[in-house]
Amino acid sequence: MFEYAPAPESRSVVDLKPSYGLFIDGKFVDPADGGSFKSINPASEEVLAEIAEGGAQDVDRAVRAARKAYDKVWGPMPGRDRAKYLFRIARIIQERSRELAVLESLDNGKPIKESRDVDLPLVAAHFFYYAGWADKLEYAGFGRRPTSQHSGAYPQPLGVAAQVIPWNFPLLMLAWKIAPALAAGNTVVLKPAETTPLTALLFAEICQQADLPAGVVNIVTGAGETGRALVEHADVDKVAFTGSTDVGRAIARAVAGSRKKLTLELGGKAANIVFDDAPVDQAVEGIVNGIFFNQGHVCCAGSRLLVQESVAEQVLESLKRRMAQLRLGDPLDKNTDIGAINSAAQLSRIRELTEAGAAEGAQQWSPPCELPERGFWFAPTIFTGVTQAHRIAREEIFGPVLSVLTFRTPAEAVEKANNTPYGLSAGIWTEKGSRILWTADRLRAGVVWANTFNKFDPTSPFGGYKESGYGREGGRHGLEAYLNV
Ligand code: NAD
């Protein structure tokens, strides 16, 4: 085991203000009733900034600004001009990526290695990708503008999009929402999660820097009530939500019977299936990436390991050896693999579920791991002896906790993998191409990775089956959610 000297990234690159207003109609403004809340650094519990809490009146103001911008500027603007703004935003994100990555790690608790090398490159790539579509919507497969040679429907923007996102990938979820919406000609009001609003507010500054017309992007901060006011506002045409299945259900009920189009990206409980012929070392890296990336705060995390019985012992031995090398601690240290849990509330949810796992008879194991005194932390953990009836096999833990189950035949693996109300993602590890295809064909999951895990690309659609939601983000499919086709 190597000893690593501390290698902290400097936080001086971030210019944190003591307080932030709401971003409405191109300006930062105070909320109507003056409410606010604090955003803290989950690794130290230090208050980072005071954030405006938007109420129904502020939401209304933001929706009006978005409507005006849609009618007067953004809706009528030719796609090639919208593309120029999106390319400009993408380039500014790249130029300011170090600042954005440090701010993301401060506010969210994720390791700088991940915000710098995963989140930020993907955020920029998303804007570049959808910028490319803005003037080519006619070629996206949803119909062409009528000419003297042919008639028929062609894709039109929806209008004002209300977007609500979670805290696990704050800026990346913003990019997944805003880039396709703007490319398709819509304007947006976005509500970031209450524990991670800071990168969305820096993004608002980037919109100003890019000279994006006022009202095209509005950011209203606040908690669940602010989100509810936004999705229930009568003048939004589209609701896009990423978050928990319970809130997704409430939103589906709230918009039912209205003209609003809805996409939901919800929870998951993915199976990562390791067959007996899989290369063990490679599979172990995939298992670690699948569940310990971003502290396991990943909707598509490989949180259920299904390993073939004949190789279970060998895989678990290698996995434990590998887990003992994971470094937990300061998110800003470039050597850190596992950062802080995003909030006290999330930490208590992880604790509740792991206690249930132990009480129901599964065996809990973590490598020796010293947790910092301040902040919210949870050691990487695996449970063996898990049955399908255990809560830790059924409920989303959303933390660095892996439930291990075994199987004997491919058919049993598929049955166990699909035995969940969710259906967001899955992983398959085997040397045999035919087995990959056979298994993938039978898995009810929106994304299936083979001999890899947690790979994302803006050109590839992402989304769920069953209680993981509906609609797709990313790729050509992601445009459809923001177009009348
Ligand atoms: P959450 O549902 O509690 O909150 C998500 C967002 O919704 C937050 O901004 C919150 O303020 C807002 N909100 C809460 N109540 C609301 C209401 N009644 N109306 C409107 N908005 C409301 O979820 P969370 O704890 O922030 O995020 C974790 C969940 O998100 C996990 O279940 C995870 O699987 C899921 N997730 C899914 C994806 C995906 O793409 N499928 C991606 C990331 C996270």
From TrEMBL:
Superkingdom of source: Bacteria
Gene Ontology MF annotations: oxidoreductase activity, acting on the aldehyde or oxo group of donors, NAD or NADP as acceptor
Transmembrane segments: none
Domain Aldehyde dehydrogenase: from-to ranges: 29-485
Active-site residues from the entry: E265
CDD domains in UniProt: ALDH_F16
Keywords: Oxidoreductase
Matches recorded under SUPFAM superfamilies: ALDH-like
Protein family per UniProt: Belongs to the aldehyde dehydrogenase family.
Full protein name: Aldehyde dehydrogenase
Organism listed in the record: Micromonospora sediminimaris
